[in-house]
Amino acid sequence: MPYLTNLRLDPFERTGWPDSGTKYGAQQYFDWFKYEFWRFVFVQQQVEKLAMTAIEFPPMQRGASFNLDAVKAKIEAARAAIAK
Questions:
Q1: What are the backbone angles phi and psi of residue 78, rounded to the nearest 5°?
Q2: In a 3-state reduction of DSSP, which class is residue 24?
Q3: What is the Cα–Cα distance from 46 to 53, expressed in whole angstroms?
């Protein structure tokens, strides 16, 4: 017998590991991985092919840096130029 959950009381739809049918978790949710796991392997193989092209055609420029060290250095250089 399925277990009904009031979604107003459980808005995040928490599920646990199903011990006894669907009373303490969604059995079909875990079955989904059993039937669809091949997709993860397929995507992993496609990403591997893409990564191998970086050996033959390496990047032409440095990767982007997402920290503020370069910005701080430019500000300090501008302040030093104004102070002279």
A1: -65, -40
A2: coil
A3: 11
CA distance 35 to 42: 13
**Exposed/middle/buried for 39, CB within 10 Å: 0-12, 13-18, 19+?**
exposed
- pLDDT tens for residues 27-83? 666 677 778 888 999 999 999 999 999 989 988 887 777 788 888 999 999 999 998
DSSP class of residue 26 equals -
What's the N-to-C CA distance of the chain in angstroms?
81
Say whether 22 sits in a helix, a strand or coil: coil
**Quick check: 18 and 30 in contact, CB under 8 A?**
yes
Whether pLDDT at 23 is above 80: no
